[in-house]
Amino acid sequence: MARPTYQRIADELRRRIVSGEYEPGDRLPSRQALATEFDVGLRVAADAVAALVAEGYVVARAGSGSYVRPRPPLRRLTRNWYRESRGGSPFRADMHAQAVRGGWESASETIAAPEGIAERLAVAPGAEVMRTRYVFTGDEEPVMLSTSYEPLEITRGTAVVLPEDGPHAGRGVVERMREIGQHIAHATEIVTARPSTAEESDRLGLGRGTVVMVIQRTYFTEERPVETADIVVPTDRYELAYTIPVEQG
């Protein structure tokens, strides 16, 4: 019978972590113990643990060993777009409700709309859009990413052309668009899951390939879409809660 590969050993250790057999803070068996248990060499055992470190399941401490990474507290992200009409940032309101200091960093630039974004905004491919990239933080730790796009044919020359600069900075899409006569009527969200990219992992402090939720959100007036965004949410940090209004007949 062939000896296990490091991937198979990593799979078994990951299963033990996910099932709770190894709890947060527990020390993993030593390389020698793993080599003996799985009948492999020390290098194979070390590679298995290194894979779990890269994925974010385990943290290595020099001279001490490898430990199951403590799970961050699971927080709720409320998907309730019309709350923005109350003023201010919905994200900051969510964080405040959970006794967390919410904030963000952002950078905006004008780009030519890629084909997929152009389709979502109902503009011609290559039309100019304002792209704003965000890193959202809770208690100064990165917790969520967002990349938003707004068509410059709507916002150019207005006080809201830069989402995070000017008199309406940081007020949310609904309120900002209202200032220029664009009244949001509804929003759509498509939620998928995939492994994080290397850039996303680095910006969020995740292990490479950690599963993240991706929310593709688009805001519409009665006439057209006016903003679209890709929001990246680590699955081990947030749960999504949707509030859906029901019209009475």
Automatic annotation (TrEMBL):
* Cited InterPro entries: Bact_HTH_transcr_reg (IPR050679), Chorismate_lyase_/UTRA_dom_sf (IPR028978), Tscrpt_reg_HTH_GntR (IPR000524), UTRA (IPR011663), WH-like_DNA-bd_sf (IPR036388), WH_DNA-bd_sf (IPR036390)
- What UniProt keywords apply to this chain's record, in alphabetical order? DNA-binding, Transcription, Transcription regulation
Q: What is the protein named?
A: GntR family transcriptional regulator
Pfam families attached to this UniProt entry: GntR, UTRA
Secreted in keyword set: no
Task: Return the CDD domains for the record.
Answer: WHTH_GntR (cd07377)
The HTH gntR-type domain is annotated at 3-71
A single GO molecular function term of this UniProt record: DNA binding
Its GO biological process annotations read:
negative regulation of DNA-templated transcription
Coiled-coil positions are none
Q: Would the keyword Transcription turn up in this protein's UniProt record?
A: yes
Recall the taxonomic lineage recorded for the source organism: Bacteria, Bacillati, Actinomycetota, Actinomycetes, Streptosporangiales
Record's Gene3D superfamilies?
Answer: Chorismate lyase-like (3.40.1410.10), Winged helix-like DNA-binding domain superfamily/Winged helix DNA-binding domain (1.10.10.10)
